[in-house]
Each structure stands twice: as structure tokens, then as C-alpha cells.
């Protein structure tokens, strides 16, 4: 089977590996960043949560880091996620309604939700994210008259990659879930592997990440709604057709 790198936090790779295997790929986790919980932030998180009218979860990483520390018994606090992946992760902890965009999976899509028209002016919105998160939603919600508080509950730490794995498996594709991952990946690559890394077929779920990949040196990217079996099977067919020409 051809190899595909899964470039996302280690704890979130299991479902992707199963999907890739079902489509005929050998999926290998290869993350240049590890997630480190901010214990001090987590200790005060539930108090912040209970005083909010609405809570926005920026990613599955935010959910898996913070949700175990929260009491969700009060169903009056509105729960909002950036996309379906985060919604699914949060549903394991929260039994109440979870709102997310039907299309799009970024802060711009979240800002277009009707929920912001139903909350009273001055309502407190808590944004659960990692340190150094993007401020687009913070700024725009403040402009609309909301009180916005952030809970930065984890750090992104550099993680050294074992490039002997890359040499051994000779991947032909990768799935990557953040622009920061893209930069960290290319920053580590040994000179002799820079060209193979640039020429992988990169799948990602957002144009902003594709732009970061191009800026880092990648030459082939494909933006997909999600990494699913059909997408991977189509890519596998293309890879198999390319192989005779490469020989």
C-alpha cells in the first residue's frame, strides 16, 4: 500500500488511520507539534464556562483538552463549534444542542451563524482555544457588542520528527490540519528530503492551510471537505497511474 502521512495532533489520528486503511493506504502519524495542556488555565476554566451565555470551541484539540474539566449539566449555555469534527468530539461530553456551520469550517463561517442574532447585546461569549489563537472572531464579536473572553487551554510545542521513518515508508501523500503544522513540518526537513517532501500530494480541509503549504514549498495540494474513503480511493487510482511513468 502507498503511504500517507497524517500530520495532526497524535490523539486525533485514529479515525484518519482507519479511513485511510479502508481506502487502501498505509497511514503513518507524523506530527511536528505536540499538544501540552495549560494546567493553570484548565483549573479556572469551569468558572469561566459557567458565567458565559455561549461557548465557542475552535477545534477538536480544544474540546479534548478542555471538555473533561467542565460541568455541562446546565443546558442553558449555548455550545458552538467550528465544524462537524469538533461537534462530534464535543457531543461525547455535552448532551445538549451543539451548533456549527453546515458549510465551512472556520471562524468566518461561525460568524455567519444565526445564533449571534438571538443572543442579547452584551452577552458573554467564551472562546476555548490554544495559546496564540487567531483573533478574527474575538474582534468581530466585540464589534457586535458582545463581551468576549478567551480560555487558552493548551500550548503547541515543537516535536522532533524521525525522518528515518519518512525514508523507509517513502510517502506519496499527506493529510495536514493546520497552517502551523505546515510551517513546522518544512522547518524540520533535512536537505536531502526537501524535494520529496515538497512533491507529496497534500490533502487539507481549508484554503488557508493550502496557502501555508504552498508558501512552505509544497507544489501539490487538494482542499477536501473531509478525508474520506472516496477521496482517498480516487487519489490512490491517480498514484497507481503515475507509478509506471516514474520508473
Automatic annotation (TrEMBL):
<feature type="domain" description="Tetrapyrrole biosynthesis uroporphyrinogen III synthase">
    <location>
        <begin position="20"/>
        <end position="217"/>
    </location>
</feature>
<dbReference type="GO" id="GO:0004852">
    <property type="term" value="F:uroporphyrinogen-III synthase activity"/>
</dbReference>
<dbReference type="Pfam" id="PF02602">
    <property type="entry name" value="HEM4"/>
</dbReference>
<protein>
    <submittedName>
        <fullName>Uroporphyrinogen-III synthase HemD</fullName>
    </submittedName>
</protein>
<dbReference type="GO" id="GO:0033014">
    <property type="term" value="P:tetrapyrrole biosynthetic process"/>
</dbReference>
<dbReference type="InterPro" id="IPR036108">
    <property type="entry name" value="4pyrrol_syn_uPrphyn_synt_sf"/>
</dbReference>
<dbReference type="InterPro" id="IPR003754">
    <property type="entry name" value="4pyrrol_synth_uPrphyn_synth"/>
</dbReference>
Amino acid at each position: 500500500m502507498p503511504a500517507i502521512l497524517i500530520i495532526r495532533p497524535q490523539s486525533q489520528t485514529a479515525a484518519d488511520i482507519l479511513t485511510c486503511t479502508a481506502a487502501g493506504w498505509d497511514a503513518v502519524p507524523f506530527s511536528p507539534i505536540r499538544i501540552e495542556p495549560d494546567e493553570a488555565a484548565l483549573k479556572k476554566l469551569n468558572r469561566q464556562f459557567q458565567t458565559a451565555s455561549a461557548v465557542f470551541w475552535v477545534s477538536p484539540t480544544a474540546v479534548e483538552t478542555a471538555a473533561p474539566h467542565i460541568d455541562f449539566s446546565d443546558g442553558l449555555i449555548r455550545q458552538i463549534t467550528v465544524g462537524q469534527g469538533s461537534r462530534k468530539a464535543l457531543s461525547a461530553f455535552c448532551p445538549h444542542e451543539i451548533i456549527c456551520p453546515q458549510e465551512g469550517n472556520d471562524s468566518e463561517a461561525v460568524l455567519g451563524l444565526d445564533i449571534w442574532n438571538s443572543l442579547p447585546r452584551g452577552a458573554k461569549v467564551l472562546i476555548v482555544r490554544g495559546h496564540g489563537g487567531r483573533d478574527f472572531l474575538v474582534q468581530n464579536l466585540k464589534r457586535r457588542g458582545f463581551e468576549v473572553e478567551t480560555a487558552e487551554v493548551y500550548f503547541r510545542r515543537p516535536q522532533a520528527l524521525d525522518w528515518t521513518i519518512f525514508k523507509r515508508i517513502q510517502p506519496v501523500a499527506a493529510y495536514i490540519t493546520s497552517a502551523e503544522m505546515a510551517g513546522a513540518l518544512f522547518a524540520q526537513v533535512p536537505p536531502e528530503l526537501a524535494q520529496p517532501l515538497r512533491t507529496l500530494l497534500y490533502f487539507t480541509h481549508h484554503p488557508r492551510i493550502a496557502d501555508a503549504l504552498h508558501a512552505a514549498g509544497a507544489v501539490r495540494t487538494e482542499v477536501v471537505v473531509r478525508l474520506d474513503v472516496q477521496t482517498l480511493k480516487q487519489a490512490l487510482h491517480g498514484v497507481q497511474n503515475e507509478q509506471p511513468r516514474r520508473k
